[in-house]
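Appendix B: complex inputs.
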Amino acid sequence: MKLTKTKTFPYWKYIIVCLLFLVMLPLNAAGIVSGSTLLILGTVIFYAVVGVGMNILLGYSGLITLGGAGFMGLAAYLSGFCSTRLGLPFILCLVISIAVPTVIGLGIGVVSLRLEGFYLAIATLGIGEILRQVFVEFEPFTNGFSGMRAAYPKLFGIVLTREVTYAFYAIILLIVMILVHNIVNSATGRALLAMKGSESAAQAMGISLLKYKLIAFAISTVLTALGGVMYMHLIKYSYPTVWGLGMSLNFLSISVIGGMQTVLGAVLGALFVIAVPELVIKQLPVIGTLTGVAYVFNGLFIVLVLLFYSDGLIRIGSDVKKLVGKIRGKKNDIDQRSGT
Amino acid sequence: MTLTKEAVHKESPDLKEGVLLECRDISISFGGIRAVSDLTFDVRENEVYGIIGPNGAGKTTVFNIITQFYKADSGAVLFREANGNVIDLVSLKTPQVVRKGLVRSFQNIELIRDLSLADNLLVGAHIHFETSVFSQMLRLPAARREERVLREKAMQVLSFLGLTDRADQLAAGQPYGVLKKIELGRALLSDPRLIILDEPAAGLNDTETEDLTGLVHAIKKDYNCSILLIEHDMRFVMDICQRICAMSFGKKLAVGTPEEIRAHPAVQEAYLGEE
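Resulting structure:
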């Protein structure tokens, strides 16, 4: 019996994206790409990690959170605290900084059984705000408005440089994308989509809504927390007001613009929301020089993308393929008619 | 009084020989309205059993009670599992029912638009996937093997339905007749002992209904299960069912063979109106 899925290696696109990020390093060494650009691209990388988590939640499971920034900040502060104040090795900081927010995330998963749509959105917004206020008030831990400092990751006793950290992050993104790709193409992924598409059908087929909402929130929170740890050890500074609704809404934009029911869409979305204002619009002659205008234009682009590419920018790939196919088809017609 | 083995056995629910499902005195009210009143009927092994009745008679409500989408206010839903054990489904949560061998389809097609037809069928096989999320995430050999085996099973059902060429097409945008077939096919993936179909012929034309009749016959033969269905298409029902239960206003009017039901005066009055 012929199987429907052919046995090709499905991870090429993720590897290519990772390589495109890595190629910036030699370009940086050669002076073509500036250090600040490298920093922005590094930011894109960890926002993409969070974006993949948002895609699982929003695109595959039909669940929403507007409190993501709170969890990312919690992980950032935890990792900063564990590495700087407690001197723990990076891996241990990573585990603690992911575990704590995920436990809270599981709590939200339980709540999501009772709350849907807008109500869930508002509830998670509330939790995000509570966390942000905790960052402000809990000064012995977070250092309040003075901010918390951290260093690049310390692996095997060696503190990494900015460049090595960037490369490390690109590899983390690759691993995350591959693992999440596996999940969404498995029975778990189908169960999440079934839960999103029809809760009745899902239950009739034996899918426990509680179990899969917990899985969705667990995966999403783990990735958000991972992004927070990555933030802390690249930006090396955390300030309470950063972790507000604005950032949570950025996560939403990244997910929706890139293509929320894909894995790679998160990278496109992060490039668009984070990199384009800084690297493209601010470089433009008149527009780029006026403060804040970059973000106005970015907002405009977001609206345009949603109007014409509501499935996400990732659809550009298939649209280009179709266009190429059409051009080839027309060329074949012309050739046939002229008898060549 | 000492508890003899006999006495203990009498405490657990009991079904007559050859009976697969029995609804015993089930009742449910919504607000002030008694939707189903003391309904009792049974479905035997390897039987096609139909429930008919005017709209609002409570047929889908009965299905929801059986499949634990609603909890009956009173009564029992007794089911004989593959191992011979008889359980009262009322003690189960909704997602647990299919694991006992009882699966349903929906009146309004509840397929997943974002999934392909093959993947929609694989959702029906969900209970057979035993590997953990971690195994699937890391694509460990056990997870890969499970996926391959169950995907083959889905392809077999697609072939049975005559839809192999549409395997990788998304459910979104498929013609209605195809969706109806997949809705039916999905139920087969769970290895059911009893398939509950809610208006499987709704919206189908004469040719498609004939196709469906052939399909139901083939299912009963190849999959060795019973089928319980609700239908309004009288020709289809009389054609395919061994026994029929006629309902009206939440109560049972009559049970019998298609001929007996057709001739029954109370059924004629409720369903067809007085002559």
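The CA atoms of residues 99 and 212 of chain B lie 26 Å apart.
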